[in-house]
Design a protein that fits this description.
Elements: E1 9-16, E2 26-28, E3 34-36, H1 37-40, H2 46-50, E4 52-59
Antiparallel strand pairs: 1-4, 2-3
Length: 63
């Protein structure tokens, strides 16, 4: 007997790690100064943080 169709579906989620238009992340240094995260770390640049990630999913009952 097949499962009803309302127990099955697909979709997608989109997320950004950070939105620079909202607020700026600052890093507090040991000397008390604050720097924007892009200046404080060479590993986290603006393009990396603003990149949109899309995840796709499919759900269905276990058989």
């Amino acid at each position: 007997m097949p499962a009803p169709s309302y127990f099955e579906g697909t979709g997608q989620l989109q997320n950004r790690s950070y939105d620079f238009n909202d607020q700026e992340i600052k890093v507090l240094l040991k000397d008390g100064h604050c720097l924007p995260i892009g200046e404080a770390s060479d590993q986290l640049d603006r393009h990396f943080l603003e990149k949109q990630v899309t995840k796709y999913y499919h759900f269905y009952p276990k058989r």
